[in-house]
Amino acid sequence: MKLKGITDVFFDLDHTLWDFDKNSALTFQKIFKTNQIIVSFDAFIAEYIPINEYYWKLFREGKVEKEALRFGRLNDAFKAVNHAVEAETIHKLSEDYITYLSSFNYLFENTFEILKYLQTNYNLHIITNGFDKVQQKKLVNSNIHNFFKTVTNSEMVGVKKPDPKIFNYAMQIANCNEQQSVMIGDNFEADILGAQAVGMEAIYFNKADINQRNNLNRVNNLIELKLFL
């Protein structure tokens, strides 16, 4: 069902347009080789993904700072696979990870197609909890930065999704209101509940086809946004 009255479409970036898991895995392959880390890669990634999600939840809730997130997720993942790594090496890996992450820029299927389709009728924007410099590099290096009129990140606002302030700030600089706006993202708590709390429409991008939720605008592939917009 088409959403009515929408003029401005806000996207999350990681896990919604930018394929974080794939790009992250490629980054780890590179930095493990560079730093001569010998570990079962598949086992490490299997542990790292949920640990990373846990640390980002803590970060959204203000329970850890940026540096603690970056160190903790690596330290805990190595512990989970019983691979001893010195703190100095983890700090080095953390820095290398941020350096090289944006050099890999796989996007989800149909990202370019849906952005080209939407930009003819809507103003497009980004709202992300990611860090300013890293997120900007991702947008530029993946060649999607020109689609977006504004980019709002948690560092510039001082709060993270789902805090209402970041959504209201994003709408303010986009010169629109909640009745004109829709948020598209993969995180139910941060993107969907956060947007709905300020009166925005929301579309849940759930690529893995899990966590079925009733009475929710939902897509499994970005091209399905044509059903709503």
TrEMBL record:
One Pfam family linked to the record: HAD_2
Entry's Gene Ontology molecular function annotations: 5'-nucleotidase activity
SUPFAM superfamilies xref list: HAD-like
Name of the protein in question: Haloacid dehalogenase
Organism classification: Bacteria, Pseudomonadati, Bacteroidota, Flavobacteriia, Flavobacteriales
